[in-house]
Amino acid sequence: MTASAVSTDAPRQGETGAATAAHATLRTLIAAKRSFLVPMTVIFLVGYIGLTALAGFAKGFMAHKVIGAVNVGFVLIAANYLLAWILAIIYVRVANAIFDPLAKKALAAMNETEGSR
Amino acid sequence: MSITLGIFAVILAITLAITYWAARRTSTTSEFYAAANKLTAAQNGFALAGDWCSAAAFLGFSGLTALYGMDGALYALGPLMAFCTVLFLIAEPLRNSGKYTLGDVIRARMQTRTSLLAVISGTIVVNFAYLMPQMAGAGVLVKLLTGISYNSAVIFVGASMIVYVAFGGMLATTWVQIVKAILMLAAGALVLLLALATVHFDPLNFFQDAEARYGPQFLSPGNYLKNPFDQISLGLGFVLGLAGLPHVMTRFYTVPDAKTARRSVVWVMFLAGAFFVATTLFGLAAANLVGQDVIRAADKGGNLTLPLLAQILGGGEGTPGGEIMLGFVSAIAVATILAVVSGLTLSTSGAIAHDFYVNWIKRGQIEEHEEVWVARLSTVVIGVLAIALGILVQGVNVAVLVILAICVAASANFPVLILSLFWRRFNTGGVVGGMLVGLVSSVVLAMIGPGVRGADAIWPLVNPTVVSVPLGFLGAILGTLLTGRDRANEERFEGFSRQVHTGLAAE
Question: Hey, which residues 6-45 in chain A have their CB within 8 Å of chain B?
Answer without folding.
Answer: 8-9, 23, 26, 29-30, 33, 37, 40-41, 44-45
